[in-house]
Amino acid sequence: MKLRLASAVKLVAALFWFSIAFVPGAPAQSRSLQLDDFAKITTVSDPQISPDGKSIACILSRINLDQDRSDRELVLIEIASGVPHAMTHDRKGVGSPRWSPEGDRLAFEALDTAKEPHLQLFVMPMSGGEAKKITDAPDGVEQFAWRPNGQDIAYVSSDEPENKKEIEKHNDAFEVGDNDYLASGPTTPSHLWLIPAEGGKPRRLTQGAWSLAKSAPPSSPASPITWSTDGKLLLFTRQEHPQFGDADLTSLQVLTVDSGEIRKLTTHTTQESFGLFSPDGSKIAYWYPRDGDPNNENEIMLTDTAAGGDGASATHAIDHNLFRVIWMPDGNSLLVGGHDGTQTSLWLQPLNAAPKKLNLGDVNPTWSFWIDAHVGRKGDIAFTGVSPTQPSELYYMASANDAPRRLTNFNKDIAALHLGKAERFEWQGPDNFKEDGVLVYPPDFDKSKKYPLVLYIHGGPTASSTIQFAFLPQLLSSRGYVVFSPNYRGSDNISNAYQRAIFNDAGDGPGRDVIAGIDALKQQGFIDEAKIGVTGWSYGGYMTTWLIGHYDIWKAALAGAPVTNEIDQYNLSDGNVAERYSYKGSPYVGENMKDYIAQSPITYASHMKTPTLILHDVGDARVTITQSYQLFHALKDNGTPVRFFAYPVPGHFPGDPVRVMDVYKRWVDWMDQYLK
After folding, report:
1. Is the Cα torsion angle 174, 179, 184, 189 positive or negative in sign?
2. Which tens digits make up the pLDDT trace of 487-530?
3. What three-state secondary structure class fits 171?
4. Mind listing the pLDDT tens digit for each residue in 82-101?
5. Is the Cβ–Cβ distance between 455 and 532 less than 8 Å?
6. 635 exposure class (CB count in 10 Å sphere: 0-12, 13-18, 19+)
7. Model confidence, pTM
8. Strand, coil or helix: what is 465?
9. What value does the CA radius of gyration of the chain take, rounded to a whole number of Å?
10. Are 193 and 211 in contact (CB under 8 A)?
């Protein structure tokens, strides 16, 4: 359950990092944030600088509340002026824009029709004309990459079941592996294909029972395929079995496209991912956990393309968990990023010198187990970011030495509201850890008054609370609450020692960290100690249920998609057997079961007396709803006030705006009921 996001197992174990980002003070305006403002937020994602360096392709997503969906557009933003140009209209599912090497075409994924269940690949001529669909993959396109000659595109698609015709006759029993309990059919492997950029018959490049690495949200995207500069080699991540529970069994492979020969790059058999050729093709950078331990920080390794081998860490001096690497055009340095205190930082890491942290001001690059950034051919940088007073926008840096310049202003109406001030709060934690978190104050905060306190605990736990705009903390602060989001051991913002300290200590150590933060906060004098609520989603839900079972200072609790039973998490979730990395192994081996039980919040249900609201999606594979049912009955049977609402949708958190807003309303209303 404890999340390690850099290697494949870090993706497997990932629990939703629930929007823990905050806004420092904004100038007083006519009103504060309201629930209805959520529908006004625009999201910018996946920036791609054009080869000529004049524009940036990206995806714009706007909420359509009437249709209960988000409408996406492919847009071009002029770098000089920031003027946007829509390139698609009413194209469902549009995403992943990628320029052709010459910049004369733009490829992207989209649904062919509104009823089409799978994404296909389209190529749009920049000289004018309609985009052309070039694939008809039965199970859709998972990812793709232009060949450097611009004539071909490699893509990844899942195989159809071998017994497809028998399945249609209801002979559909399937063998269970390390898949989640919601699986309704076999998990088929994903493989590489090559297709002419103008369309035509695709050619299969790989096959077998093994698979290219897969991903399941919320987590990083699937480990990308990349071409060597000469277009002869494809680098990919092999996963030994396609089930998501086996996503730790990964290794980097190099395919010679013309001959079909595949060779293993290193001696590692687990945890490798996200390999990238250097601009001249002579080196490969890749993700790997420090010392091969998935509980450790993710480092960026370098190895030789021709000779192979494990290579050496290029980023050991950056004692942070890194979840993005991009080669700079000169091939002599890497752009890397990760959490850093209560910020998200980018570093320029030369191959043979000390790293340099880039000056991003008060802008945090967008993070969702991945930093959303791109480097152009001139060494310029585009990224989507969130400022202290404004949601997602597009930012541009002419070089790594320049300050970021905001190119878009889609969320200016949100930025104009009277938002609560946020600041970093530090305290001395147990076990000699210097810890931090984020405080968000009510918009008209007066330190001479007393305020109810709501804890808003991040998920992960390999994640962090950072100072940038996020909707729910602002909504809570607008209702008169001080909102406190503590980082705790297991968070990835301080050091490897801090991140790794959660190993086999899922609740007790992090719980003591949180309580130490609250004790330090009480000393500030503005907290009403009789009115404290604790809330969180995913691992934040785990922490919520752990805390109400061990401390009696709470007046209200909200547990969203909470991990309450580590045995269910091991057996039923999509990460399933990868849980063993968080403990000393499988719960069914030796005496490990006692650790799983001792670290499951449900074990302490008889001690939980706090009125609790439970929220969960019925189709959540990441954290199974069985655990919320157990919590509901345990609290109810012990006479603790509890209500449980389930959303009849798949996923770890509702994906449509109507249900998201319902979550937020119930969240705030529950706090109001017990803290006001």
Report:
1. negative
2. 999 999 999 999 999 999 999 999 999 999 999 999 999 999 99
3. coil
4. 999 999 988 999 999 999 99
5. yes
6. buried
7. 0.94
8. coil
9. 24
10. no
